[in-house]
Amino acid sequence: MKKVGLRPISLRAKVIVTAVLCLLIPAVAALSLSSYLTKSVLKQQAIDNAEASMDVVHQYVLTLVQNMIYVSNKIQFDPEINAILLQNKALEKSNDNQNDPKIWMGDRKISQFLENLLMDDSLYMTLLLENGKSYTNYTYKSLNPSMYLDEPWFPRLEELTALETFWVGSHSMYMQGRPHSLTIARTIKGPFEVPYAYLIISLPEERIRKVLQNYDSNQQIMIVDSDNMILSHNEPEKIGTMMEYDTSKLYVNSKALSFGGWRVVSLVPYDHITRFITQLFRSIAIFQLILFSIFVFLIVFMMDRFTKPVLKLARLASKIDSGNLEFRSHIKGRDEVGILGRSFDLMLNRIQLMIGQIETEQNLKRQMELEMLQAQLQPHFLFNILNSIRINSMSQGHHETAGLLLSLSSFLRMTINRKNEWIRLSEELETMNHYVKLMNFRHKETVTFEVYSSSDSEVVEVPRFLLQPIIENAIIHGLENMGGTITVSSWVEEEHLIVAIKDSGVGMSGEEVEKLQNGLLDGKHKPHAGIGLTNVYDRMRLIYRTDCGMDIESAIAFGTTIRLRMPISGGGAFYVQTDAGRG
Question: How far is it, in rounded angstroms, from Cα 253 to Cα 50?
Answer without folding.
Answer: 9
